[in-house]
Specification:
single chain, mainly alpha, about 475 residues
């Protein structure tokens, strides 16, 4: 049964349960709502939630667990001597999943029937062409073990989907019947429903924590696996980044960290003065009408997709800098992709982060401090420099550190504006790259996830996670320690 039909069935049962539960409670009370313990809709909601929540919970767990179980079962079916030369089990499993997907699409489009799929053999030369016709591209022929594993994968997946459909519908019916039978005028439906809603809210609030925990654990386990294959000393203290999936890779993080910090530094040099000065103007000098126009225009920059900034760096800023500092100008720049290109565009992107946060922080400084400064004879500029900014400085520093975290995690601007060269250089007009850009490149394509060249992406991600976590923690510490409390 298709998943959307299963969801619709459960929702329909819940809707029917709502009206039937509500009607049963009113009938038991003889139509007099005053004899009910709870309002009528609570009785309906109890039946609806009893049918819907357990069914959807089992469906979600099943959808998460089934691929893991099926893949583990298929891996046990593939003998080690059946692996093609130079292929690992993970690469073979990728082919198995693609072939199984192609067979499913072929059956859905009527190209093949289930019986024809079951009798399909690897000796038929048109298998790869047929899969290409349905939109599944394979880089090589489909050997016999891969085809048999793909057919088993289809069967196990279909069988699991059928069992899931039966279990979910049965659970929804059981919950429906159990809650409906318990419904009467004296049933404490409101207490049950409110407790259930509270549990759902707690689960929703815990989802972000569990997601973060899952991300951290996946990074940790894969990072540990990487350091089993590649020395940690070479990773942290080496100076060459030269991955090679054929072996003999040099995977040092220092060139990538240097490029990340160098580009982020240039971005902050652009964003902090412009953002801070614009915040001072908006909060201290601009009138209400001018502020109403300027602040939304500045904040539009935060809503522009980073891919658009990348195109701006590639097509506009890079050629402009090349004309000024290239061979026709000062001769410092060889190509449009450089640290300066990415840094300038990233700085433009960060302006609204610094400006908006600093504006809110400056506006939080009490007017009484300004009035006291004016009363002592200070001018407006002296009041801003000696009273307002010192009072708002902890928050401004926190805003700058948060902008730095945003700059360190940027990818698209770096990929399109800074190039892909991992090097240690002080020249801002040379191409460099960052940690995030290399994470993307190492995980792009049919990489063998058992190799250090693929697992290094997780080590890079863990390094970046620790750096941004420390920056955010430091920003929070600064804000809390030096924040002024005003009445």
């Amino acid at each position: 049964m298709p998943l959307h039909w299963l969801v619709l069935i459960v929702l329909a049962l819940s809707a029917v349960g709502f009206f039937m539960g509500r009607g049963r409670a009113l009938r038991d009370a003889g139509g007099d709502r005053r004899l009910l313990h709870s309002l009528p809709h609570y009785y309906g909601a109890n039946v609806a939630l009893s049918a819907m929540v357990p069914a959807f919970g089992v469906m979600l767990i099943w959808l998460l667990a089934q691929p893991l179980i099926v893949n583990a079962s298929i891996e046990r079916m593939i003998p080690a001597d059946a692996l093609p030369e130079g292929h690992t089990l993970s690469l073979v499993m990728s082919d198995v999943r693609r072939v199984a997907q192609g067979l499913d699409i072929a059956v859905e489009r009527g190209v093949l029937s289930d019986a024809e799929v079951a009798s399909l053999s690897a000796d038929e030369t048109d298998i790869r062409a047929m899969l290409g016709d349905v939109g599944v591209a394979l880089g090589a022929e489909v050997p016999g073990p891969v085809l048999e594993a793909a057919k088993n994968h289809r069967q196990l997946t279909a069988r699991g989907a059928m069992v899931m459909s039966i279990a979910v519908v049965a659970l929804a019916l059981i919950g429906f019947a159990y809650a409906y039978r318990r419904t009467n005028a004296q049933f404490r439906a409101r207490n049950i429903v409110e407790a259930g809603v509270r549990a759902l809210l707690i689960m929703a609030a815990s989802l972000a924590i569990l997601t973060t925990l899952g991300i951290i654990l996946s990074l940790i386990f894969n990072t540990i696996e990487f350091f089993r294959l590649h020395p940690a000393r070479d990773f942290f203290f080496g100076s060459v980044w030269a991955p090679s999936f054929g072996g003999g890779s040099e995977l040092a993080v220092l060139p990538l960290l240097w490029g990340t910090l160098y580009i982020s530094f240039i971005a902050l040099v652009v964003a902090v003065p412009v953002g801070l000065f614009s915040a001072i103007y908006l909060s201290e000098y601009a009138g209400s009408k001018m502020r109403a126009y300027i602040k939304p225009l500045i904040e539009i920059l935060a809503g522009i997709p980073t891919i658009v900034y990348g195109l701006f760096a590639l097509l506009t800023v890079g050629p402009l800098l090349l004309g000024l500092f290239g061979s026709n100008g000062l001769g410092w720049m060889q190509a449009g992709t450089a640290v300066m290109t990415a840094g300038l565009v990233m700085g433009i992107m960060l302006i609204p982060f610094v400006s908006s946060l600093s504006d809110d922080i400056i506006n939080a400084v009490p007017q009484s401090l300004r009035d006291g400064s004016y009363g002592l004879g200070a001018t407006k500029s002296e009041t801003i420099r000696q009273v307002v900014l010192p009072a708002a400085l902890p928050g401004i520093v926190g805003a700058i550190l948060l902008a730095a975290s945003r700059a360190i995690g940027e990818t698209m601007i770096v990929v399109m504006g800074a190039g892909a060269a991992a090097r240690l250089s002080m020249n801002p007009f040379e191409a460099m790259t960052t940690v995030t850009a290399k994470i993307v490149s190492q995980l792009t394509g049919d990489a063998d996830f058992a190799s250090p060249e693929a697992l290094v992406a997780f080590a890079l991600g863990m390094t970046l996670f620790v750096i941004t976590l420390c920056l955010n923690a430091f920003a929070l510490y600064i804000v809390r320690k030096y924040r002024e409390q005003y009445e």
